[in-house]
Every structure is written in structure tokens, then in C-alpha cells.
């Protein structure tokens, strides 16, 4: 029975196959059927569906934003470069991350509109402005990707960096205090009243006037000149024995320094560390203000600190041309002379074009006193000049010079508000924190600026938003 059922089943399958084959052979499909009976896929697709809403042409390297709109990649790059915004050109919705090319849509447009795509790609490659915008846009994306890669390091990396920085600053402060035995005495004189000076302190003050003062050191020691006696000396006493300062230039120099001592009540600062000890808040303010806005800071010194700070700064950076025999022995007297018109012209040119060069020249004049510190300041001034030139070049190439007045006004307002906040908060800041900020600005700021300059050189057209 089972064999019979199997034979019947096989016959049924063979008969059905014969029927199907017969149907296919008897009724072949009509291949001559008109195309209108079955519409073509290509004809039913409109070019408008594959057009960019910026250039209104076929999409080239279509890029899809998070809002769903598609644009040519070069159109999106031009929009980003001109608007400086991460938002859709059509609906103004901000995109997330960095837009990528829609590969599926790109392959579809390449197949459907191959001739148009080929022509448009040739035009894009021949346009240098578009090529520059695409390069800048891609570099922005690369920098954004590197930034996000570093984010996985988390809070541990942040606190590790902070700890390292604070450790370095602390080491510098400790090394400075351990190795500055002579500076401690000078700092003492900048805060100790003149009437309390001892003979040794008076002699130390006299030696700092210059090498020529060594001629009169012995006479001061023989007369046991202390602070009270020093304040009573005048032109007649210095001219007569036992002092016998017959050189009028030397006598004018001693009297000028005596007038400063009587006015201040203490020894005037004669180097960076003494100035910092006598004017802790002012030195920190000037250090950061000259770095952030040298032109505004120098203008502030001209208005409110002309004789004490501005004149010495100008005479140091733009010295007067004078003969050796006409030079005044006292540095203070030389820096209190009114600048000549040649000095003013030189200063104003440097002030307008390269203000950081003035800072570098001022530090160069102090190389013999502050060997390493002056070199750090000079390197930092050079780096800041490069960064300023890169910023101006970026504004020029991006046609953003017209926005320069607005940026200057915002910078002025920002500096004024920060200066006012500093004046209010300064009395409440611990001295240790101020020292850390001071040494950080001098010794670690150049390291940070080196990294910024390298980024500008490697990616001159990249501007982070």
C-alpha cells in the first residue's frame, strides 16, 4: 500500500510540473508591452527631491544633519564658516556632534545623476574658496573629535593636572624663598621705615645706587650714618667733609634718591621681587593685565601712574640717544626726564603695532638682575605676539575686519569689569594664592602659549566655536 501511494504521489508532481511548463510555453509574457503600462523608476524621481536647499542644485556629498535636512557638504562648510554657528541653514536647529556624509544618499545621486555630479565636482575642486572652507570644516571636526576623545579621562585627569600644577608652583615658591637670603634683606628695607635703618642697611641702600657710590661708602661707615642721620643730610652736608661728594652729578643722584626715600618712607623697589613685596596686588594686576591687554594697561599707567611706572617703562623700552659723558648716574633721575619726540614716536609705533615687544625690551634690560625670569617673560611676549598676529590674520581672511570695533568694545568692557572685580576681591585673597597666581603667570604661561601657537601653525584656518 505504501509503495502504491508513493507512485501516485510522484505521478501527481510530474503532471503538475507539465501543466506549469505548458502554461509558460503556451502563454509567454508580452515583452512588447509599452513602457507606459509600467512606469520607470528613474522617470518617477524628480530632481527637486535630490536638490540642496542652499544652492538648489543636485546634492554633492550630501550631508545629513540631526534635524533631517540634507545639504551639499561644501554648502554646509561655507555656511559654517560665514555664520560661525552649528545650526541648520534651513530650520536653524543646532546639530549635534560633527555632520557626516550620508553614504546611501551619495551613492543614489551618483548613479541617478552621474553627469551632473561629475560636472559639479569639477567646479568645486576648481574653486579655491570652497576648498579652503572644506579643509577648515574638516579640521574643525578633527579637533572636535580629539576633544571628545580626551573627555573619557574624566575628573581623575583634571584633578591630576591641577595637583601637578600646584606642586610645580609650590616647588618654585619654596626654591625661591630658600635661595633668596639677600632678597629677604631687600624686602625688609622696602617695608621698614627709613628712620629705623641701621648702618648696614644705609650702606646697602647706597650700594644699590650704582658702582659710582662705592667711592663714598667708607665715609658713610666712618660717620655711622643710620636712618635718622640719613634723613637730615642735604646738599651742603654732602658737599662738605667728611662726605665730600664734589661731583655734582653724584650729589644730584644721592639727593634724588633721598627725596624718594623721604616721600615713600621706605626704600623704593629696585627689582621685580622688591616691587612685588612692596606692591603685591598691583604687581599681580599688571602681570595679568599686560598679558591680556597690553595697550589698555599701558594707557592706564599713562593716566594714573605716570611718573612712578610709565616713565621708567618708556625710557627703558625707548631710550634717549645721548652721549656717555652726559648720562646721569642715577637711574631714577634718568627715568624722570620728559621723553623727547623721537622717543614718543618710537613708543607709539611699537604701542600700536607690537605692544608685546615693549614688554620684551623691558625684560631684556633686566637680564643682569633677573636672568631666568626675564627670559621667560621675553619668550612669553614673543608667543603672545604670534597669537595676536594669527587672530588678526584670521579676521582678515574670514572678512571679519568689520567686526573688529565690536570686538574691541567687548574687550574693553570685559577688562574693565575684571579690573573692578579684582579691586573688590583682592583684600580677601590669601597671600599664598596670590603667589601661586603670580608664579604661574610668569613661568607656566609660556608653556600654555607654546601649545596654542603650535595649534595655530598646524591648523591656521581652524576656529573653534
Automatic annotation (TrEMBL):
GO terms for biological process: apoptotic process; proteasome-mediated ubiquitin-dependent protein catabolic process. The chain crosses the membrane at residues 156-178, 376-399, 420-442. Pfam families: SAM_1 (PF00536), zf-C3HC4_4 (PF15227). It is found in: Endoplasmic reticulum membrane. Residues 52-92 form the RING-type domain. It is a multi-pass membrane protein. Its EC number is 2.3.2.27. GO terms for molecular function: ubiquitin protein ligase activity; zinc ion binding. SUPFAM superfamilies: RING/U-box, SAM/Pointed domain. It catalyses: S-ubiquitinyl-[E2 ubiquitin-conjugating enzyme]-L-cysteine + [acceptor protein]-L-lysine = [E2 ubiquitin-conjugating enzyme]-L-cysteine + N(6)-ubiquitinyl-[acceptor protein]-L-lysine. The keyword Nucleotide-binding does not apply. It comes from the Eukaryota. One of its GO terms (cellular component) is nucleus. Residues 197-264 form the SAM domain. Keywords: Apoptosis, Endoplasmic reticulum, Glycoprotein, Membrane, Metal-binding, Transferase, Transmembrane, Transmembrane helix, Ubl conjugation, Zinc, Zinc-finger. Interacts with CASP8, BCL2 and BCL2L1 through SAM domain and also with HIP1, IFT57, ESRRBL1 and BCAP31. Interacts with NGFR; this interaction inhibits NF-kappa-B and JNK-related signaling pathways. Membrane-bound E3 ubiquitin ligase that plays a role in several processes including apoptosis regulation or reticulum endoplasmic stress. Has anti-apoptotic activity, both for apoptosis triggered via death-receptors and via mitochondrial factors. Contributes to the dynamic control of IRE1/ERN1 signaling during ER stress by inducing BAX inhibitor 1/TMBIM6 proteasomal degradation. Promotes the activation of TGF-beta signaling by mediating the 'Lys-63'-linked ubiquitination of TGFBR1 which is critical to activate the pathway. This is Bifunctional apoptosis regulator. It comes from Betta splendens (Siamese fighting fish). The lineage of its organism: Eukaryota, Metazoa, Chordata, Craniata, Vertebrata.
Amino acid at each position: 500500500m505504501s509503495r502504491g501511494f508513493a507512485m501516485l504521489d510522484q505521478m501527481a508532481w510530474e503532471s503538475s510540473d507539465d501543466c506549469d511548463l505548458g502554461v509558460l510555453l503556451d502563454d509567454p509574457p508580452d515583452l512588447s508591452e509599452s513602457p507606459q503600462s509600467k512606469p520607470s523608476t528613474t522617470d518617477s524621481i524628480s530632481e527637486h527631491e535630490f536638490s540642496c536647499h542652499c544652492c538648489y542644485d543636485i546634492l554633492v556629498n550630501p550631508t545629513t544633519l540631526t534635524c533631517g535636512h540634507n545639504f551639499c557638504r561644501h554648502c554646509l562648510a561655507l555656511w559654517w564658516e560665514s555664520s560661525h554657528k552649528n545650526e541648520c541653514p534651513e530650520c536653524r536647529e543646532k546639530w549635534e556632534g560633527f555632520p557626516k556624509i550620508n553614504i546611501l544618499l551619495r551613492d543614489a545621486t551618483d548613479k541617478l545623476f552621474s553627469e551632473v555630479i561629475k560636472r559639479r565636482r569639477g567646479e568645486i575642486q576648481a574653486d579655491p574658496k570652497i576648498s579652503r572652507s572644506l579643509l577648515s570644516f574638516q579640521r574643525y571636526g578633527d579637533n572636535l573629535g580629539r576633544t571628545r576623545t580626551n573627555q573619557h579621562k574624566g575628573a581623575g585627569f583634571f584633578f591630576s593636572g591641577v595637583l601637578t600644577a600646584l606642586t610645580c608652583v609650590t616647588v618654585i615658591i619654596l626654591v625661591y624663598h630658600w635661595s633668596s637670603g639677600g632678597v629677604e634683606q631687600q624686602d625688609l628695607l622696602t617695608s621698614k621705615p627709613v628712620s629705623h635703618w641701621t648702618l648696614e642697611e644705609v650702606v646697602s641702600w647706597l650700594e644699590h645706587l650704582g658702582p659710582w657710590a662705592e667711592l663714598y661708602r667708607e665715609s658713610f661707615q666712618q660717620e655711622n650714618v643710620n636712618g635718622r642721620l640719613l634723613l637730615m643730610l642735604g646738599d651742603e652736608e654732602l658737599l662738605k667733609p667728611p662726605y665730600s661728594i664734589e661731583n655734582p652729578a653724584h650729589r644730584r643722584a644721592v639727593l634724588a634718591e633721598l627725596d624718594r626715600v623721604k616721600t615713600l618712607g621706605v626704600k623704593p623697589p629696585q627689582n621685580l621681587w622688591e616691587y612685588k613685596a612692596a606692591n603685591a596686588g598691583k604687581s599681580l594686576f599688571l602681570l595679568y593685565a599686560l598679558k591680556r591687554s597690553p595697550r589698555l594697561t599701558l594707557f592706564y599707567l599713562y593716566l594714573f601712574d605716570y611718573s612712578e611706572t610709565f616713565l621708567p617703562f618708556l625710557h627703558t623700552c625707548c631710550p634717549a640717544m645721548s652721549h656717555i659723558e652726559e648720562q646721569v648716574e642715577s637711574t631714577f633721575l634718568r627715568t624722570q626726564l620728559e621723553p623727547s619726540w623721537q622717543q614718543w614716536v618710537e613708543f607709539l609705533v611699537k604701542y600700536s603695532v607690537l605692544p608685546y615687544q615693549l614688554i620684551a625690551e623691558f625684560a631684556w634690560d633686566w637680564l643682569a638682575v633677573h636672568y631666568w625670569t626675564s627670559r621667560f617673560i621675553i619668550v612669553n611676549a614673543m608667543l603672545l605676539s604670534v597669537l595676536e598676529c594669527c587672530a588678526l590674520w584670521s579676521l582678515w581672511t574670514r572678512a571679519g575686519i568689520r567686526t573688529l570695533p565690536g570686538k574691541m568694545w567687548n574687550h574693553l568692557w570685559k577688562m574693565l569689569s575684571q579690573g573692578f572685580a579684582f579691586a573688590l576681591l583682592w583684600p580677601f585673597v590669601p597671600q599664598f594664592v596670590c603667589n601661586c597666581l603670580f608664579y604661574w603667570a610668569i613661568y607656566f604661561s609660556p608653556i600654555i602659549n607654546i601649545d596654542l601657537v603650535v595649534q595655530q601653525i598646524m591648523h591656521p584656518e581652524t576656529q573653534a566655536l
